[in-house]
Design goal:
2 strands, 64 residues, alpha+beta, single chain, two-stranded antiparallel ribbon
Amino acid sequence: MAKQQSFADKATKKMLHAGLKCEACGEIKQPTLIIDSVPSKHGGTRFAQRHVKICKCNEKEVYG
């Protein structure tokens, strides 16, 4: 039989696992999908996707 879980239990569990904290600044790292246009071998354009976790420390490096 399954354990009953209240809404308060679910909310506290979600807040604990909301995101990883940055060691340097203490902010929560937000997962973001970055899409860059890259020239292909045949003269066209293709899109490269990468997943990055962004906080205040690396915000300028990723966006700028």
